[in-house]
Here is the input.
Amino acid sequence: MFPFFSNTNIRLYCYNEQEEEDFFGEKHEFRCKGEYPADVQPYSASSSQREFGKILQDTYTVLLNIEVPVEDTDLIVIPDEGTFEIIGSVETWNHGLINHKEITIKKHRKEVINYEHDNQG
Here is the structure.
């Protein structure tokens, strides 16, 4: 049971290094781990000032079911919104009735992957 209001779905992508190299060095790819319901809320200016010492633009707090396999190196895609990176660590809150994971994400200025044609798995 997810105790928050899910207002969107997010896709998680994990970073995979490939054994081959190209002109620029090691090659990598992002593999889709799955799509999950999430509660995505804008990160407030006062929270941003308190946590990071400055106001961050395009930054959001995401609440997820505690079972979602999210890691701090994952890439986040919100369909029709773009790609996002996780700032800091994944916080796991597992005490009481409201077990969940919480992450802070920041929108990329340029999309990192082409997710439009992804087969999601």
